């Protein structure tokens, strides 16, 4: 980030600020006038995000036309904060448009656009339709602020706003108490991570005197390693909240309480990718502290494994996908953790395609079976909804890493990088295991929904969804299938070169296994997992699905993580708050009232001469004041004044 | 407008309006509230002149006015404005018309009610303008009376207890301050109560400490700082909506204002010595207020405790003793005024409809009253310092400034950010989410007049959140100077000490050298 340019006037980058601003304005418009606009609301929303998508594409094309060393631009709009004068805090409203931001813009706006279009059909009958589109707009705008922020603080604005949007959308059907609880949980758990992010910013500012990327990132090598380690860890705490990693992943599976397009948005285009993006954005910092990077990778690997295990035991079609997201995010953190930022971002992009597709397909299925979400009461839907089924299959193959699908390339790169990083072999082993588990639970998901015998409830008439819903599925299927073209090889793929100006380069130290063996192991394990899942569940007796004790039960109960948090955090917290509240009433206020009673007791002696309560005090005040003044004047109290 | 006594006019307009209201027949409800609206509205419009008459980049007092008042005691009528008092007065003149509009349907003895409100506004503006310390004290006591009346006459069922408690707390703090003022006066030669004269009094370390504590009593109670806060939940809960709004939005700000105007400039060494203690109290206030707020079953009480938490941040920023923290504190005071004022207004709308403040008696309000619920949520988000809204642009600089002084204090206070989200969203969830039940059944959404009260507030929340610079441009120079003065004067003191030490060492060295020489 040494060579930061000001965008030429009139270029798409010069207007890039409209990319977040237009959907944000549209959101405001719909929130205030949505009722009057009615059906028009969705059109406004789609047009606004479509505008952002178009402009993002122009920005991307503009960057591509620039020489490689001239692709980092900062577009300053004005001062946001200038606090405390010359040595104070100064943060501008400014956009950092570089290759990394540009691919994120494409992902967010285009996948966002598809989800908007899909919602036309999906939310057609909801009475709060305009509000829904307003929130979608706001969500996209927030994420666009996040990925274009030119400083830690402006990134943080988007970071917190996506938290707000998830709160609004997860709790969209707030009449249900459990949904409202899930919304609050999403916000609060995110905020726990945000505090880590905030403290990291305090430390960054104390060390570098600035929060702007262009000031801080080139200077990281001048700072003490201890400070960098602290900053790296604290930023990662923020990332674990937003990107649902251990120990803060608990909010994401509950967040599927929101309407399904929202889940697609949260899991694919916006929100959860933010943590990965943050680490990639701060890659010069993490390059200085490889051990912290390794920790990040280990947390990612552990999360990937635990979430995959839980996904294998769930029976709710969205919940399986939710844990799958947590698991796949783990892969991304393996990538950025071991230092291959390109691989991490690559998997973020491909995952954006196939996970958006999976969620939208899940919504399409729910539409067909009267909002049923239990995969045990589905089955045999392939012939009833062929478009949904075929596109789902493509997504399943992609996430399972079937050769030449998008997920194959990106996951392979993440695993190869882990294998190339000394000390990360254990991570690689976990990653391979998770690849097998992923293939297994996704095969199970697909088979139980689309194949086998129909098990849906009496009266349900499954049908294919309207074109507004299937069209996005088809587009995303193309992306899921062909997304690997972005980076067909780690050394000379497109993305690899493209991101060079933005992220630190990966220094591979040579693999501990031959590349052929690495590839073979991953493919073999995934094939075994996938086949096992398919064969097992093709002929399964559904009565045996989602039951069973021991390890399976523990996984189904999500390893009791929520219960543990309830016991060790929430309950003691409530008890402490209760104790404080009681202390405030009886302790502090009790003392005050006791003092008052005592005074009143003394005061009764001279009370007869007084009538009104306050008047007596006013008089006492006056008398006291005169007395004190007199004492002062004569120097009695303090002595030696004169 | 050179020569026009703008500062005096801003005190006089509401005072005259109060007199007019007092002269109107008590049955003329329409005329009474029209007069109140006209008085507060005119004051607000007049205060907008400050935007052009005040020079943003200057640190010192501007638009000064000075007339001898009681010359034999050296008391003058001296007014002046700097960036800090400017913002707080603009907040005051902005909140009052909205409060009057919210109380439009007030029927219980409206004459006294509106007269009290107007008198209160005059006194509050006077507190911020006064640059003669006795004049400051007079306004400080004068504002007590109408607020005491508002709580004690138009308050809830436990109003007597709450109003007396409020009165005594403020008065006790005020009296201690008066003692200190008189001490300073006599120490300075008993010739003047002028703000600058008393600031120049040379004091010993011990004197500074005692006098600091006396002023601190007055202001810590006002903030309110833990553990001097327990009058606030009672006063807030029992006060009528207008009283709660003004109490939270404006009156509490006198605490933070007093710290910056008096404590720091008058007693720099004591400030520096006691700053760690006050930072600790600020952190405790932030966390403790939030935890206690969580357990409240009365929504008004919950908001009152949230004030304890939010204003703990103000103490942090001021006693971080750097420009970032101090400037953040002033902006936080304005923001707290807007968001907590808005919360009390909204709770007022709620209470007018149902006469209940119990959180548990509501469920699903967002369903029955979406506009009310939406505006409430925006206000909640402003209160929990969501970036993009106003709360954040004050709280973040405060924490950043505090971090430079005391890392642990900033880190601990940062957890208040989680707690704020927890207690406010939990309350919101219980009252606004869920199926429509309890008193939410048949709950009428906001009327146009009530929406009109909220729109300016929400607009400012958003406006300040996105572009706080007009505020900081005016606050920065003022706080920079205050902090620089504290630094300079404590450095001088430290240098004196160091010089004394050095002299002692030199002497010793000379002695040694002499001993060493044959």
Concise summary:
The complex is a heterodimer of chains A (642) and B (518). With 642 residues, chain A is mainly α.
Segments of chain B where pLDDT lies below 50 for 5+ residues? none
| Assembly level | heterodimer
**Morphology call of chain B:** globular
Radius of gyration of chain B in whole Å, from Cα? 24 Å
> What is the average of the pLDDT values of chain A?
88
Total DSSP helices of chain A = 24
Percent helix among the residues of chain A?
55-70%
Determine the fraction of residues in helical runs of chain B and give it as a percent range: over 70%
**Whole-number mean pLDDT of chain B:** 92
Distance between the termini of chain B: 79 Å
Shape of chain A: globular
List the strand order in the largest sheet of chain B.
1-2
Largest interface: A-B, 66 and 74 residues
List the uncertain runs of chain A: 606-612, 631-642
Rounded to the nearest angstrom, the radius of gyration of chain A is 29 Å
In total, how many domains does the architecture of chain B comprise?
1
**Percent of residues in β-strands of chain A:** under 5%
Strand content of chain B: under 5%
Order of helices and strands of chain B: HHHEEHHHHHHHHHHHHHEHHHHHEHH
What separation lies between the terminal Cα atoms of chain A? 67 Å
């Amino acid at each position: 980030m040494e060579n930061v340019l000001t965008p030429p006037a009139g270029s798409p980058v010069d207007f890039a600020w409209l990319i977040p601003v237009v959907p944000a304005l549209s959101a405001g418009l719909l929130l205030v006038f949505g009722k009057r606009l009615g059906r028009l609301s969705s059109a406004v929303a789609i047009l606004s995000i479509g505008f952002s998508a178009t402009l993002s594409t122009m920005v991307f094309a503009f960057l591509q036309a620039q020489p490689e060393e001239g692709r980092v631009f900062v577009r300053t709009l004005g001062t946001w904060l200038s606090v405390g004068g010359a040595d104070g805090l100064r943060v501008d409203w400014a956009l950092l448009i570089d290759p990394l931001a540009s691919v994120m813009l494409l992902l967010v706006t285009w996948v966002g656009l598809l989800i908007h279009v899909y919602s036309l059909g999906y939310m057609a009958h909801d009475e709060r339709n305009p509000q829904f589109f307003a929130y979608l707009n706001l969500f996209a705008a927030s994420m666009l602020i996040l990925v274009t922020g030119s400083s830690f603080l402006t990134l943080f604005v988007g970071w917190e706003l996506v938290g707000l949007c998830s709160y609004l959308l997860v709790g969209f059907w707030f009449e249900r108490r459990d949904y409202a609880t899930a919304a609050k949980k999403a916000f609060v758990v995110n905020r726990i991570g945000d505090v880590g992010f905030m403290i990291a910013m305090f430390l960054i500012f104390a060390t570098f005197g600035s929060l702007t990327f262009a000031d801080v990132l080139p200077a990281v090598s001048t700072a003490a390693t201890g400070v960098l380690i602290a900053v790296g860890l604290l930023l990662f705490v923020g990332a674990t909240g937003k990107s649902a990693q251990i120990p803060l992943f608990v909010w994401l599976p509950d967040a599927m309480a929101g309407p399904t397009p929202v889940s697609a948005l949260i899991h694919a285009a916006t929100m959860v990718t933010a943590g990965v993006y943050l680490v990639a954005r701060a890659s010069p910092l993490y390059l200085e502290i490889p051990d912290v990077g390794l920790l990040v990778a280990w947390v990612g690997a552990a999360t990937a494994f635990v979430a995959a295990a839980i996904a294998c035991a769930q029976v709710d079609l969205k919940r399986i996908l939710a844990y799958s997201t947590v698991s796949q995010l783990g892969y991304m953190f393996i990538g950025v953790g071991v230092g291959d930022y390109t691989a991490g971002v690559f998997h973020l992009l491909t995952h954006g395609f196939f996970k958006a597709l999976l969620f939208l397909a899940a919504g399409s299925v729910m539409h067909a079976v009267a909002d049923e979400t239990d995969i045990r009461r589905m089955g045999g839907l392939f012939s009833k909804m062929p478009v949904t089924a075929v596109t789902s299959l493509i997504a399943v193959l992609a996430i399972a890493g079937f050769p030449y699908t998008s997920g194959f390339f990106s996951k392979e790169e993440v695993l190869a990088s882990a294998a190339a990083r000394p000390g990360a072999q254990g991570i690689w082993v976990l990653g391979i295991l998770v690849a097998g588990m992923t293939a297994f639970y996704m095969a199970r998901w697909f088979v139980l929904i689309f194949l086998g015998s129909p098990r849906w409830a009496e009266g349900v008439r499954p049908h294919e969804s309207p074109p507004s819903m299937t069209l996005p599925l088809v587009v995303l299927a193309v992306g899921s299938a062909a997304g690997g073209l972005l980076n067909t090889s780690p050394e000379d793929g497109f993305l690899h070169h493209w991101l060079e100006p933005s992220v630190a380069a990966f220094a591979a130290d040579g693999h501990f296994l031959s590349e052929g063996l690495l590839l073979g192991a991953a493919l073999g394990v995934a094939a075994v997992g996938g086949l096992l899942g398919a064969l097992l569940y093709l002929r399964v007796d559904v009565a045996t699905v989602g039951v069973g004790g021991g390890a399976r039960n523990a996984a189904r109960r999500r390893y009791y993580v929520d219960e543990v948090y309830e016991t060790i955090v929430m309950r003691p917290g409530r008890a402490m708050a209760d104790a404080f509240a009681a202390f405030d009433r009886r302790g502090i206020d009790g003392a005050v009232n006791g003092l008052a009673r005592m005074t009143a007791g003394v005061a009764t002696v001279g009370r007869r001469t007084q009538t009104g309560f306050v008047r007596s005090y006013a008089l006492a005040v006056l008398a006291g004041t005169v007395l004190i003044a007199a004492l002062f004047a004569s120097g009695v109290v303090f002595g030696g004044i004169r | 407008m050179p020569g026009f006594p703008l500062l005096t006019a801003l005190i006089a307009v509401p005072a005259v309006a109060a007199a007019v209201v007092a002269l109107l027949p008590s049955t003329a409800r329409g005329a009474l509230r029209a007069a109140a609206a006209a008085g507060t509205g005119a004051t607000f419009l007049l205060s907008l002149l400050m935007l052009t008459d005040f020079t943003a980049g200057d640190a010192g007092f501007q638009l000064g006015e000075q007339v001898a008042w009681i010359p034999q005691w050296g008391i003058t009528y001296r007014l002046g404005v700097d960036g800090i008092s400017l913002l707080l007065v603009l907040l005051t003149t902005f909140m009052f018309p909205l409060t009057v509009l919210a109380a439009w349907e007030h029927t219980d003895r409206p004459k006294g009610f509106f007269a009290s409100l107007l008198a209160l506004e005059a006194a509050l503006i006077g507190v911020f303008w006064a640059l003669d310390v006795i004049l400051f004290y007079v306004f400080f006591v004068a504002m007590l009376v109408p607020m005491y009346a508002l709580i004690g006459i138009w308050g809830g069922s436990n109003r007597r207890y709450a109003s007396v408690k409020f009165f005594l707390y403020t008065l006790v703090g005020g009296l201690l301050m008066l003692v200190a003022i008189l001490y300073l006066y006599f120490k300075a030669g008993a010739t003047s109560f002028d703000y600058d004269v008393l600031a120049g009094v040379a004091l010993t370390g011990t004197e500074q400490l005692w006098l600091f504590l006396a002023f601190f009593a007055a202001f810590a109670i006002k903030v309110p700082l833990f553990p001097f806060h327990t009058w606030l939940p009672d006063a807030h809960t029992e006060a009528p909506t207008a009283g709660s709004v003004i109490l939270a939005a404006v009156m509490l700000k006198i605490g933070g204002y007093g710290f910056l105007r008096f404590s720091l400039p008058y007693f720099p060494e004591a400030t520096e010595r006691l700053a760690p203690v006050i930072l600790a109290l600020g952190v405790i206030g932030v966390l403790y207020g939030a935890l206690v707020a969580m357990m409240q079953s009365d929504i008004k009480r919950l908001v009152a405790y949230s004030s304890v938490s939010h204003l703990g941040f103000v103490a942090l920023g001021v006693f971080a003793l750097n420009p970032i923290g101090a400037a953040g504190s002033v902006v936080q005071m304005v923001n707290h005024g807007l968001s907590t004022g808005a919360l009390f207004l909204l709770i007022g709308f709620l209470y007018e409809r149902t006469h209940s403040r119990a959180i548990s008696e509501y469920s699903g309000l967002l369903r029955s009253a979406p506009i009310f619920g939406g505006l409430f949520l925006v206000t909640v988000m402003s209160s929990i310092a969501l970036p993009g809204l106003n709360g954040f642009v004050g709280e973040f600089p405060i924490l950043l400034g505090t971090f430079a002084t005391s890392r642990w204090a900033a880190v601990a206070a940062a957890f208040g950010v989680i707690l704020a989200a927890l207690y406010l969203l939990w309350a919101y969830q219980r009252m606004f989410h869920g199926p429509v039940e309890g008193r939410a059944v048949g709950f009428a959404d906001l009327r146009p007049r009530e929406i009109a009260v909220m729109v300016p507030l929400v607009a400012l929340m958003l406006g300040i959140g996105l572009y706080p610079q007009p505020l900081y441009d005016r606050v920065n120079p003022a706080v920079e100077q205050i902090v620089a003065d504290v630094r300079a004067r404590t450095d001088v003191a430290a240098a004196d000490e160091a010089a004394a030490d050095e002299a002692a060492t030199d002497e010793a060295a000379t002695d040694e050298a002499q001993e060493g020489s044959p």
